[in-house]
UniProtKB/TrEMBL annotation:
Pfam families noted in UniProt: TctC
Similarity comment text for this entry: Belongs to the UPF0065 (bug) family.
Secretion signal, residue range per the UniProt entry: none
Species name: Bordetella genomosp. 10
InterPro entries: BUG (IPR005064), Bug_dom1 (IPR042100)
Domain of life of the organism encoding this protein: Bacteria
Transmembrane parts of this sequence: none
CDD domains the record matches: PBP2_Bug_TTT
Entry protein name: LacI family transcriptional regulator
């Protein structure tokens, strides 16, 4: 009797191994894939399956403006990335307060997002006596989307070609008990308060002419009824390109990609000067961190899209992006700066 035993090599003769070899599959090869899949499932579980429904983006101004454009171009890209609808809703009124309050009182689930800007978040709380939200207690900053620096503009027929020309003329007028006229979109706006900071830096006095919005301020400046205007770049960019206004200096700490040949106020002799408007997403306080992270990641990805960058820059803005933590640091810095400017300007709305 043949007593020879067939010796099996471990791991070679079990049916699954033979199938795996035929399919070209190895456990070592699929482990990384499994790890990624499990990590994705864990992330989804932490966020409660977010987003599982349409997200509403509140824009606290009317349709058709710079904020509206910003919200729509970024939201379209985020909806593609997160596979859900982002619905932009315009809620204007009270210099953005009505829209901000709407989001502050919304459920903290990530389905109601505010597109806020400098005015609503770090000026209104110090300008208005009855603001019912606290920027740092009512909201969580998600991401700073872009910056829109201010720009000093004069009529194209103006003799002022540089910031030094304006300062020299203002000092001469002040010595005679007179002032140059400065137009802004309104009292307490970023443009107004930026001009306050500039007048302090330059040691000059200008007569502030506040308008009810930028349109009429631009019209009077183009016509020469005002000597100069402090405006956000997106607001006056079209008139600058059309040759109706001359850009003299921008208020940011670096030159604008939209106006690369225009020096900054800092370059013109006032080192450290930096003021302007930013736009960013906020969610109600107590929104889960996992949801904030998902929105932040999607928004950052959207801001890397060439068509989004092109749209923002074409409107005179500068793409920023970054973390929620970095945005919070900007909020604290700007709150200190603008609260002081509001106090020194004497502007107050009751």
């Amino acid at each position: 009797m043949n007593t020879t035993k067939t010796r099996r090599l471990p791991g070679r003769d079990w049916p699954g191994a033979r199938r795996g070899r035929r399919a070209g599959v190895s456990l070592r090869a699929i482990l990384p894939v499994l790890s990624l899949a499990l990590a994705g499932l864990a992330g989804e579980a932490r966020a409660g399956g977010y987003p599982g429904a349409p997200v509403t983006v509140i824009v606290p101004t009317g349709a058709g403006g710079g904020m509206d454009l910003m919200a729509r171009v970024v939201s379209v890209k985020m909806s593609q990335l997160l596979k859900t609808s982002f619905v932009v809703e315009n809620v204007p009124g009270a210099n953005g307060i009505i829209g901000a309050v709407r989001v502050a009182n919304a459920a903290p689930d990530g389905y109601t997002v505010l597109l806020g800007q400098t005015s609503q978040m770090v000026i209104n709380p110090y300008l208005y006596s009855n603001v019912s939200y606290d920027t740092f207690k009512s909201f969580i900053p998600v991401i700073r989307l872009s910056n829109a620096p201010n720009v000093v503009v004069v009529p194209t027929h103006s003799p002022f070609r540089t910031l030094a020309d304006i300062v020299a003329a203002a000092r001469k007028a002040n010595a005679q008990g007179k002032n140059l006229n400065l137009a802004t979109p309104g009292s307490g706006t970023v443009s107004h308060l930026t001009s306050v900071l500039f007048q302090q830096a330059a040691g000059i006095q200008l007569s502030h002419i506040p308008y009810k919005g930028a349109s009429s301020a631009l019209t009077d400046t183009i016509a020469g009824r005002d000597d100069l205007m402090m405006s956000s770049i997106p607001t006056s960019f079209g008139q600058i390109r059309a040759g109706q206004l001359r850009a003299v200096a921008v208020s940011a700490d670096r030159r604008s990609a939209s106006l690369p040949d225009v020096p900054t106020i800092a370059e013109a002799g006032y080192p450290g000067f930096n003021a302007g408007t930013w736009y960013g997403f906020f969610v109600p306080a107590k929104t889960p961190q996992a949801v904030v992270d998902i929105l932040n990641e999607a928004a950052n990805e959207a801001l890397r899209s060439p068509d989004v960058v092109k749209t923002i820059q074409a409107d005179g803005g500068e793409v920023i992006g970054g973390s929620s933590k970095a945005f919070l640091a900007v909020l604290h810095e700007d709150a200190a700066k603008w609260s002081k400017a509001v106090k020194e300007s004497g502007a107050r709305v009751d």
